[in-house]
Amino acid sequence: MPPANGNPGPGPNVESLVQGLAPLGSFLSFSPPKIGPLEIAAVTEALSSGWITTGPRADEFERAMSGHLGTPGALAVSSCTAALHLGLKVMGLGPGQAIVTSPLTFVSTAHAAVYNGARPLLSDVSADTGNLDPDRLSDFLEKECHPGPDGLPVHGKTNLAVKALVPVHYGGHPADLPALWEIAQRHNLGILEDAAHALGSSLGGLPVGHPGHRPAGASGLPSLAAFSFYATKNIATGEGGLLTSLDPAPLARARRLSAYGISDARRIWDRYAPQGTWAYDVEEVGFKCNFTDIQAALGLAQMSRFREFQDQRATNAAIWARALSPLGDLVELPAVRPGAGHSWHLFPLRLRTRALKIGRDHFIMALKALNIGTSVMFIPIHFHGCYRDLAVPGDGSLATAEDFFSREVSLPLSPAHPPEAIAEAAELVARLLARHAR
Ligand SMILES: Cc1ncc(COP(=O)(O)O)c(C=O)c1O
Fold first, then answer.
1. How many whole angstroms separate alpha carbon 347 and alpha carbon 335?
2. Ligand 1 center–CA 343 separation, angstroms
3. In ligand 1, which atom is closest to the CA atom of 239?
């Protein structure tokens, strides 16, 4: 496996890469949250309210989120990682079983399977979007798996029964849900969407997570989604996540599991209210990953400005696209397929490295010297030490994801950055690229 340590290795020094280019006046950080007086007032109010953990504000946040997504319910938790963990648990994932997911994701997606005693299997992505390629996935399930006794596909090489698909909406471009549901139906699989990037993403006009994406014929199959409100996400609560389910029973169990396994977890906070009671029962061994009212206050304030945030993300993405599209011989811009509503969580640029004299890692080094912060999304799952043996690369080839990673740089898009700052950075990046063309 190639090392992914961020060290570009031998090559030109950074001064020579950026010679003659003036850096930005201040550092344009990769993805700062946009926090203003509204958020500060909301959090201050929560802090002064006399109740700062899960309570009425968390309830209100859940109602706001399920209203926004059109889902029958929503459970706010401490992170998307927790939502993925709980989501797979309530789908019944366990030892001897596996999920199939994308290699081009954050480790949380894979960890969530391992937390449940199961394993992640990887299938390659589409070159344009970085999302699971339905044709490759279908081939994986048809050619590398055989039908097991309980109707689930069994992966020949590992003897693991595939229980669920976990597609990632990479960067905010929605995964091909109609094709994935067609495959899920054919193989009797549930779907847990890793929607960490997908608040603001839609397909055919319906938000990711919306009940309209599950076909009528698949109503017996679980359909869940996990969103993230981590500090860099489209709304940020510091840390935070949300689990949605189209069916009430899995969500009710996830709620109980998010608070130790205590019965009627929603009313835990009532225990300390005048009408409350001290009595409770712990029905199963759960976890501790609830969402606090402080996070909820921040999240509600962020949601009240969500439209403004999304418009500015789209504006910033358009500025990058306008500046870089004349350099189409040197870079690939993020694709937007027909019918897809992009959340613009990321602007994943890919270098056409054969047309350039510098590689991706030196390019990032040069951007840093020019005061432009970036990130790389993602180091493929199977490149990480803990997954070298654990993850089983689908049909043996994850070449598209590996190539995607090797050429990818995510550029700043945050609505905290004014369009003028993005325009200045975009012009600088265009000049840097033009200078290093072969
Ligand atoms: C694709 C993906 N899935 C899951 C996560 C985990 O989210 P969280 O940090 O809220 O646990 C992230 C976080 O960045 C992510 O990018």
1. 10
2. 15
3. 10
